[in-house]
Amino acid sequence: MALHLIKLCVGCDTVKDLEDWIRDKRRRTRGKKTEHLHRTRMVPKRAAELIGGGSLYWVIRGEILCRQRLIGVRPYVDKEGVGQCHLVLDPTVVTVEPRPRRAFQGWRYLQAHEAPPDLGRSVQGAAALPEALRRELRELGLL
Predict the structure, then answer these.
(1) Cα dihedral angle (72, 78, 83, 86), rounded to 10 degrees?
(2) Strand partners, 85
(3) End-to-end alpha-carbon separation of the chain, Å?
(4) Local confidence band at 52 (pLDDT 50, 70, 90 cut-offs)
(5) Are 78 and 84 in contact (CB under 8 A)?
(6) What is the four-CA torsion angle of 78, 79, 80, 84, rounded to 10 degrees?
(7) Phi and psi dihedrals of 11, rounded to 5?
(8) Rounded to two decimals, what is the model's pTM?
């Protein structure tokens, strides 16, 4: 059973904002083949469990809305001698069934049985709806 991470997506109000940010970051490499890296201060001690099928779930505006598959965990030491970590992520963002989540600092482990299913699997056709409409339908109890 895979282990996942969960993290707040600071600076993004929608899944599209996150996708645009990833696209812009990769575009700035001027055509070079690049990996999508996310820097974090703490190195996960259970990295081997994360790589075996784990994902990074993003909390956007108080809800878990999407995930990216974890490809690697690379600890490193920055210029000031502080240990940090690069999470190597698949650039593809997968929307998931929204779940409320309160704010927290850093990242947390997320057990596989606690992780929300991908959106297309839970409600047929929901993934094709615009995010704002899905949010409004959820608030009305219709989705």
Answers:
(1) -20
(2) 40, 75
(3) 29
(4) confident
(5) yes
(6) 0
(7) 95, -5
(8) 0.82
